[in-house]
Amino acid sequence: MEMRQAIWPESQSAAAAMPAEAMRMAQTREASLSRLLMAYVSTGLVFMLLPGTFLGVWNLLQISGRESVALVSPAWLQAHGHAQVFGWIGSFIFGIGFYSIPKFRGARKPPFGAAWACWAMWTLGVAARWVANIYLVQWRIMLPLSGALELFAFLIFFRMVSQHRPEKSGKNRLEPWVWVVISASVGLMLVLIANLIACTYLALQGGSPALSHILDQRYLTLMTWGFLAPFVWGFSTKWMSVFLGLKPVRSRLLFSALAVNFVGVGLTLMGWGAQATVFFVGGTILIIAALRMFEPARQEPKTRGVHSSFPFFVRMAYGWLLVAAFLGVGATRWDSSGGIWGASRHALTVGFIAVMVLCVGQRVLPAFAGMRLLWSTRLMFLGLFLLSLGCALRVSTEVLAYQNYANWAWSVLPVSAFLELAGITAFAMNVFGTFILEPSHVQKQPLVVTMK
Questions:
Q1: Intra-chain end-to-end CA distance of the chain, in Å
Q2: pLDDT confidence of residue 358
Q3: Burial of 447 (0-12, 13-18, 19+ CB in 10 A)
Q4: Which residue in 184, 72, 85 sits closest to 126, CA to CA?
Q5: Cα torsion at 274, 279, 282, 284 (round to 10°)?
Q6: CATH number for position 257
Q7: pLDDT tens profile 91-122
Q8: How far apart are CA 337 and CA 155, in angstroms?
């Protein structure tokens, strides 16, 4: 997909041929979609900073101080993860989805009412889960209520975006990246269904608003490898060949990676977690080969409007994905205290998912939010550098500390947490600065979107 900075000249020529009334309607529609997107993204940033990252730092400080993860409330640990995945990543996905699908599919009347209802239900659902896990306020009611709100919000989103069909373009088949995103959407739906079932069970039979260790491990695998990773793979398939100047994606390897990965997810859900880790390694190697992520580029990367280090951090994120997969295999053999499992999960969620969100988010969100420019490319680099450094410290010292290989590593863990918090904060400041301080060019440039 070409960014708007690259298609503004085309927009100018379109403006000359567009009737004044049609141009006004297009500009109004674009402005409304941009406000919707910014609402979702801003909500996601709030969940990312406060219930998500700040609580994660607090949890790690407690773990480091007590030198044991077993002495920290599982409900607090799960609240942190839920806010990050659903509150942050989920809000971003919904916002970009509502913004992009009607526009790219040629809808004349975007479903604003449904989109705002979805935002309200999703935000209330994630907030209710936070209150239930942290403050235990009527948690037997709040847990299933939060799960139901989140699932219903997803169903609204799915119904709205599935109503739009591509205009006649001579294509009889969906592009490969669409199939990958569809599979990830199915994964998200399964995660939300499993979440509602688990919340209902805990409300009826549980002694606390926290899943047991075994169930939580399987649920996290479904969430990370069944939903988050495929979503990133799908949009990498769509954008990275253009952004990084790579050769075309190998479609057969792409679908093979997806199939191998979901076999691993299925094995984990059936209780064969050790065997599943080998499939995650295989799927990771296949997706890297399919995207040609570490192969020489055929042309210069498109870094206009972002920091020149953008291609480096994208490739590094896929390096973290490989580290996460191999650490999972190592955890099945040598983990005795959760340290290697935790390091594997952190390499996946922060090293891969979060770094990719910081890279791609600052690449596409400014253009989506009213054709703005990124507020600060230096702040983009600073956020990515701090987050990556913190992740490297966290993954390495978590193994050393939890496994009792080096006692000094416990004192380094809080440093990694504050570095990651600083990186995430820099990202939030840059996005908010873009929304608030950078001017919108939507009134000057009518929307012309070309999908390539």
A1: 6
A2: 97
A3: middle
A4: 85
A5: -90
A6: 1.20.210.10
A7: 999 999 888 876 555 556 667 889 999 999 99
A8: 39
Q: Note the pLDDT tens digit of each residue in 56-95.
A: 999 888 888 887 777 789 999 999 999 999 999 999 999 9
Q: Is residue 452 situated within a structural domain?
A: no
**Which domain covers residue 279, as residue numbers?**
4-164+174-437
- pLDDT, residue 444, reads 55
Is residue 169 in some structural domain?
A: no
Tally of CB atoms within 10 A around 319: 16
Which residues of the chain, if any, have pLDDT below 70? 1-19, 21-23, 102-110, 163-172, 442-452
Give domain status of residue 248, yes or no: yes
Query: How many structural domains comprise the chain?
Result: 1
Give Cβ neighbours of residue 169 (< 8 Å, ≥ 6 apart): none
Sign of the CA dihedral 209, 421, 38, 449? negative
* Residue 444 in domain: no
CB 24 within 8 A of CB 63: no
CA atoms lying within 13 Å on the CB side of residue 83: 27
Helix, strand counts (H, E) of the chain? 17, 0
Amino acid at 246: L
The amino acid present at 256, given as its one-letter code, is S
